[in-house]
Amino acid sequence: MKKTFLVLLVVFVAIAAFALFANKSSNNNQVDDTNQIDDTNDSVQLQEVNEDNESPNDAVNTEDIESPQSITVTYTDSGYSSATVKISAGDAITFVNDSSNTMWTASNLHPTHTLYPSSDISKCSTALAGELFDTCKGVAPGESWSFTFAQKGNWGYHNHLQIGHGGIIIVE
Ligand SMILES: [Cu+2]
Predict the structure, then answer these.
(1) E strand or H helix at 159, and its extent?
(2) Ligand 1 ion: Cβ-proximal residues, 5 Å cutoff
(3) Is Signal there in the keyword field (predicted)?
(4) What span, in angstroms and rounded, lies between the C-alpha atoms of 12 and 153?
């Protein structure tokens, strides 16, 4: 009887010892889990910081990327339409000659065409001709001419061959 009790006691102690050990290693696992959670939080915070850093750049890029527009102004026998156009710096205007006459679109003021920066009818015969707000020649009916406005301002223009026809390109 005493022997049976001893065996039971040994078994009980063994179970208790095993349970204690199992609990201890379980605690170790929990500690490990906590570390893993901390690691996860760190990486999430890093990602958030990176996103925060990118956000202002995205906003700046959006303004920079705002793609240049190409706006058409149609010239008919009654003049330019729309005669006054508001655009952003870097946008291009294509002047389409839908009239029955030759169109020579150029910066004001007639006859020197010097209102738009660097423009000057006297430069039409030079290598700078392509950079002037000045077709520097007659554009036949059915043809067109494009100019990109880099300079901000209100740029009056006219048809050099029909000075009563003109308008304003507002570059903002
Ligand atoms: Cu003129």
Answers:
(1) strand 153-159
(2) 110-111, 160
(3) yes
(4) 95
